[in-house]
Design brief:
Jelly Rolls; 47% strand; mainly beta; 4 domains; 513 residues; five-stranded antiparallel sheet; 2 helices; Immunoglobulin-like
């Protein structure tokens, strides 16, 4: 029974905690003889249990914070309706209590909440971004009816990271939760022959991508298969696992007009299967998406090298972001739709612009869709348009800095969205600028006496010049065109930032000899 902090923990008479944990509904059990805990004191035990419950709350559809007992129930024939029972206790809590109702990560849209007995509104929740305070009389339960404006997110695989062990999955008896995880604390392990699966609701005529990480200890004797079938047992996609280390599995599939649900199954059906097969971090979303794009799960899903690591709260992002110290990089392969146009955006900044950040999009044949160098001392959002070739469905996104690069680069909030099909896929636009300056002519480069700046469009402009340490060395305003003297500049690399009066910008790297 899910409960809040200060609530009640279920006590079950078993010989050992391990016996309880063998049940698929049990995430973790703690053992006591009534006076002491085997692993810690009674006070430590309570703290451990309360912290474990709190960490799982946001994965529920709804939960309550405060001193009370509570439970939610989704109406079987109406996925938009929930009932929430909240109760204080006249002995443990002999007074009225104010508690807080919150929506979990799987809920989208507004949630209207009414008192079930009086049929009066108590307020509205707007997904996980808001909360609603209600009063619970001492010893008297309150029942709330919650009505959603849209269903729970269909791309949310229940317990796909197995942090709640095998809850929401249907396993055979040879399947257990294991601490040998790709990321986090737990993964699923199939010993010998066996399987686990779960059903998920999906939309008809929609293309999805399943991403998971899997491995097998003895691929020659029982390779596992990751399969996706619809409610009529029609195979929509599959991938066989034959790697002995955790490897990304990506399956793109399209539902038909009658598909309303899918089965995600990890199966070893060989009676002579030897060793173990592992599964972790299962995600299903509509194509296309970037896995762990906000780096809240560190570098899970990314290939990385050099000085790339995840940091938190470094005056760039309120949560986590990737930081490249000196040289290094990150990359990820994603599934896309052939002939579709996408916009790929990200936020970045650096503290040394002597070496730019290279952003690149390639296909499986090595063709470069995008290859751009980015230099910015301020946090800035960039967006690049790419049109996928006919017949192509795999793209690699990569961010890198060359060897012997100095300083740091931060990257965060990477997104991919379906764009305008009329785009040729070659132009890149700086998202946070209302107008882009295109095809400005700067010459000569390298230069030793002066540099000519000739924008394609006539008008008023402002030029800022930065050296390799990010210092503003020069600032000029001009109309239509300008010749900048550079004979008194120290030899080296300079960065020209050209701005128009509409907020558009363009940057250039200029060498002074």
């Amino acid at each position: 029974m899910p409960i809040s902090k200060g609530g009640f923990v279920t006590f079950i008479p078993h010989e050992t905690a391990e016996e309880v944990e063998e049940n698929i509904w049990c995430n973790v059990a703690y053992q006591t003889n009534g006076d002491t805990w085997s692993d810690f004191s009674l006070s430590q035990g309570r703290t451990t249990i309360v912290d474990a419950l709190a960490s799982e709350q946001s994965n529920l559809d709804f939960y309550v914070e405060g001193d009370c007992f509570w439970q939610t129930l989704q109406k079987e024939d109406d996925p938009l309706t929930y009932y929430l029972v909240v109760m204080g206790n006249s002995i443990l809590s002999p007074k009225d209590r104010v508690v807080t109702i919150k929506a979990g990560n799987s809920i989208s849209g507004a949630c209207d909440i009414k008192d079930q007995l009086s049929n009066t509104s108590v307020g509205t929740l707007y997904t996980s971004e808001s909360e609603l305070s209600v009063t619970i009389p001492k010893g008297v339960p309150r029942i709330f009816k919650i009505t959603l404006t849209s269903p729970s997110k269909p791309d949310f695989v229940e317990n796909g990271d197995f942090e709640a062990k095998l809850i929401n999955w249907t396993p055979t008896e040879t399947v257990l939760a294991t601490e040998e995880a790709y990321y986090g604390n737990y993964a699923a392990k199939v010993t010998g022959k066996g399987s686990l699966h779960q059903w998920r609701k999906v939309k008809p005529n929609t293309t999805y991508t399943l991403t998971a990480f899997a491995k097998v200890t003895d691929p020659e004797n029982g390779q596992p298969t990751l399969t996706i079938k619809d409610q009529t047992d029609n195979l929509l996609g599959s991938e066989q696992v034959n790697e002995t280390t955790y490897t990304s599995q990506r399956i793109k599939f399209t539902t038909n007009t009658t598909t309303d649900s899918i089965s995600i199954k990890y199966l070893r059906d060989n009676d002579k299967a030897v060793g173990d097969a592992y599964l972790d971090e299962v995600v299903v979303k509509e194509t296309a998406y970037i896995l762990n794009a906000d780096f809240e799960k560190d570098l899970m899903g990314w290939t990385y090298y050099g000085g790339a690591k995840v940091v938190a709260y470094e005056d760039f992002s309120k949560d986590k972001s990737v930081k490249i110290e000196g040289n290094g990089g990150i990359s990820q392969w994603i599934k896309v739709e052939p002939s579709a146009t996408y916009e790929v955006s990200f936020t970045t900044k650096m503290d040394d612009i002597s070496n730019d950040l290279q952003f690149q999009i390639n296909d499986a044949e090595g063709n470069k869709y995008v290859l751009e160098g980015v230099t910015t001392l301020q946090s800035k959002e960039y967006s690049f348009s790419v049109t996928v070739k006919d017949g192509e469905e795999n793209l690699e996104l990569s961010f890198s800095r060359a060897n012997e690069s100095s300083g740091n680069v931060w990257i965060d909030n990477i997104t991919i969205t379906l764009g305008d099909d009329s785009s040729d896929g070659q132009d890149n636009i700086i998202n946070d600028l209302s107008t882009a300056i295109l095809e400005t002519n700067i010459y000569p480069n390298p230069a030793n006496e002066s540099v000519n700046i000739v924008p394609k469009v006539a008008g008023k402009y402002e030029l800022n010049v930065f050296d390799a340490q990010g210092r503003n060395m020069d600032k000029r305003s001009f109309t239509d065109r300008f010749k900048l003297p550079v004979s008194n500049y120290t030899k080296g690399v300079y960065f020209f930032i050209l701005s128009d009066m509409e907020g558009g910008q363009e940057s250039f790297k200029v060498m002074v000899k």
